Amino acid sequence: MPLPTSVKLFEMAPRDGLQNEPGAIVPTATKIALIERLAKAGIKHIEAASFVSPKWVPQMGDAVEVMAGIKRQQEVVYSALTPNLKGLENALTVGVEEVAVFGAASEAFSQKNINCSIAESLTRFEPVLERAREAGVRVRGYVSCVLGCPYEGEIDPNKVAEVAKALYEMGCYEVSLGDTIGVGTPLAAKRMIDAVQQQVPIEFLAAHFHDTYGMALANLYAVMEEGVSVIDAATAGLGGCPYAKGASGNVATEDVLYLLEGLGIETGIDLQAVIDTGYWITNELGRKPSAKVALAKGPSH
Ligand code: HMG
Ligand code: MG
Which member of 8, 44, 94, 102 has the lowest number of beta carbons within 10 Å of its beta carbon? Predict the structure, then answer.
């Protein structure tokens, strides 16, 4: 298949990027400033917060304050994770326009991450989708561990397809396929997408690849060749899941933008502004961006 002519980039840094940050809680004002900088750089889809239990993920405990505090740009969609009705109700109090439920293709990971089986999670998501529909809020779905699980090892692509289909049929407008621990390689990624697209049309699928083994860009290119045109990425390569041991950051937004520019795929996002934002946020966190492109180009001042 020819490469897509346009790509939707879904920015993960404020949520996936910060949820696993060790040490002190990142101040709410820093989270808000990060989201506002990313929007200013031209990013149109930002996962801004997570309405999960603060006992499970303390870094996301200020989701209400973050969502209420951002100065919203009209053309930007700010979304948030909502694992259950409680999360959704909290998110609705601050006017979210889009939320996400997250399941897994691995039973063990589902238990560790959201404290229930895959089947129970799907049952739990149904009222979330129903309530979101009533409220006029779109719902994205995630499937984790699509190319491997920290507890179960290899994952059958047909299991990924089964969970993706359930989320799609429940009403998720898009299903994001997560290589949570970044163990995938291009051929495995292609095979997984081929299995999933038998059940869910390719235009409704997103690639959410972590870069633990440095394969994320290669895997993205492989699935773009299959027709995937929605890419999740995190500025500075931030990220990781607290319930996936060894999971490193998401593929870096800077690196994805450089790849897309090289392929002649327009995104409308200002690469240098993203690089600068990556330097700024990692400086706040006491380190450097892991994005190769950011390291090569450097900050603008
Ligand atoms: P549970 O303990 O089974 O929940 O956790 P519960 O319903 O039994 O409630 C227990 C307590 O939590 C109660 O409080 C609830 O009120 C509270 P208590 O009575 O003890 O004081 N509670 C909540 N509080 C705030 N917001 C809520 C909420 N729900 C219950 N929404 C639960 C189940 C799902 C809540 C928990 O397991 C959880 O929060 N898990 C989240 C884990 C997480 O955020 N992981 C990272 C995100 S997923 C990811 O990173 C992967 C992804 O990036 C894709 C990829 O890379 O693959 C998306
Ligand atoms: Mg992730």
Answer: 8
Alpha-carbon span 206 to 280, nearest angstrom: 28
How close is the Cα of 235 to the center of ligand 2, in Å? 13
Rounded distance from Cα 221 to ligand 2 centre (Å): 18
Alpha-carbon distance 178 to 254, whole Å?
19
Domains: count for the chain: 1
Q: Where are the beta strands (DSSP E) in 154-287?
A: 174-179, 205-209, 230-233
Question: Could you identify the atom of ligand 1 that is nearest to the CA of residue 12?
Answer: 53
User: What is the domain-level CATH number for residue 145?
Assistant: 3.20.20.70
Q: Note if the pTM is more than 0.90.
A: yes
Range of the domain at 175: 8-296
